[in-house]
Amino acid sequence: MTESMMRDTASLFNAAADALARDDTEAAKGLLRELLDVDPTDVEAIRQLGRILRDTGSSNAAEILLTSSVEDNPASVELMLELADVRLALGDPHGASGPIKRALSLQPNNAETLYLLGNAFLDLKHHDEAIRAYKASLDTDPFSAATWYNLAMAHHALGDRDGEAQALEAYLRCDPAAIDRSEVEATLKQLAN
Length: 193
Prior knowledge:
By secondary structure, this protein is mainly α. It contains eleven helices and no strands. It folds into two domains: 7-108, Serine Threonine Protein Phosphatase 5, Tetratricopeptide repeat (Alpha Horseshoe), CATH 1.25.40.10; 127-193, Serine Threonine Protein Phosphatase 5, Tetratricopeptide repeat (Alpha Horseshoe). α3 packs antiparallel against α4, α5 (77-89) packs parallel to α7 (111-123) and α7 (111-123) runs antiparallel to α8 (127-140).
């Protein structure tokens, strides 16, 4: 890629980021597609386009884009995780397991991979396995509020009130500005009784 093309892709990416900051997802999608016409291997542009598609109700389109991109970039853990996340959003934890397993084979201690593994197990109602995956994720990233919250949900599903309470307390410590703070505090009061 020439220096001019690199500047063009950087400009397109920055313009897409600006469009997202203005909540103009249509413009961001167009700019990212234009960028990918210039450089179809830009992993971050693929990830962002996949996220936009998923978040705007086009999860099937995101899955198609990411499946193709993972095939073209078989060593990209980032793309595997995006694909797994989209498949989980589509309610397909079995489909998510393939990219999660591939990502784990490349980076066995990746906190995000272990978090998504926990989510897949939680969706499948394999709560003990979900707890193990979330705890392994927290061993790598103990400040992940989302992981603590989902760990609480797994404990809740098993009826483990102490485990649920401990995980929710850690969730609130990791995210002091949590938008659901009052609901979580109310749940903690119920668990204390």
